[in-house]
């Protein structure tokens, strides 16, 4: 065998619905199988379990994997690098088409199992195999999957190395080079350097923040920002609500700790909060103080909000879904006056999240903030650091791994362009050693 193929199935034209296939002779490894959130007016609390895959493909919500019918070979494994929906959200809709196990880290595995159990349209019978960071799984005699520890905005995230007879293919979607994480270990720099020495044929790498200069701040910075906003005010007796990604366990841990310092009871509200935090607690990644409350169902959420109003807002810190202004989410319902919780002038609303850069989410978020301000809320915006590598982190990874070929993924044309410019600075040549792929294209790399 003298060549490998890279199939850009999804996530090469846009943010979301990530899916790549690596062809090694007659064998195929699929990397990620994600959802594009904004295409179905969807957020972490919306269920799409009753929708058909063809309908979702047509809407551009999940990868169009019909291209796989044109590829000769057998899919031997589906590998997922972390538990965000743009990487695992299409598993309930597509995985049953492939007679292959799903390999992922333990936390990701728990989230995948939740997704499969919630699915109403298709029966997904694939084996789901947990593999720890630092572990290796032998897929065939010639191919193995290695998980390399890395940091991102969700716990238990890895880079996946597909070891083949002609060298490794490294899949680096998503990551940040956080040397002082608040949960988990720092990235395994030693293994990345030794992998580079062993020989990396190709690196498929996210390009999301490749256009942002400098280095991504550590999650430790975000922890300090959260604490500064929550504790750094003289108006400590007013209502405070904070919203963040339900999947961002390190951030939620920081918020819960700050609530303890404030003498407030943390109340996690939303179905996705219950799902992500519950799984982290069950697996022993997260210990919750005894006073933490968690409510997922709407009637339980409204009952909790009613009690908060009766007992006094200053006794509680509600941690809610809705930072993107998603219709039906808890913060949107509060802003619309659809819950017992009433925003009064001077109440603080803290967004510990960025706005996802799509026109629809930006419009939703603008509408949400406007409604909150009309009720007199004081807005604290962008109390957040990114989970994605900035340009200098990308440069570092490229230098460490030193792949023969590099393929930007997980982004739109502008993001890929930024990555390619940076790769050209490192000596790569467009069309020769750095490659621009679009959804549905196949690249063959010969050795």
Automatic annotation (TrEMBL):
Q: Which residues are recorded as binding Zn(2+) 2?
A: 86-87, 174, 410
The prosthetic group or cofactor this protein requires is: Zn(2+)
What is the annotated localization of this protein? Cytoplasm
Whether Translocase counts among this entry's keywords is: no
Query: Which InterPro entries does the UniProt record give?
Result: Metallo-B-lactamas, RibonucZ/Hydroxyglut_hydro, RMMBL, RNase_J, RNase_J_2, RNase_J_arc, RNase_J_b_CASP, RNase_J_CS
Residues binding Zn(2+) 1: 82, 84, 152, 174
- According to the entry, every stretch annotated as the Metallo-beta-lactamase domain falls at 16-233
Coiled-coil ranges (or none) = none
Q: State the EC number(s).
A: 3.1.-.-
Q: Can the keyword Nucleus be found in this entry's annotation?
A: no
Question: What Gene3D superfamilies does the annotation carry?
Answer: Metallo-hydrolase/oxidoreductase, Ribonuclease Z/Hydroxyacylglutathione hydrolase-like
Return the protein name. Ribonuclease J
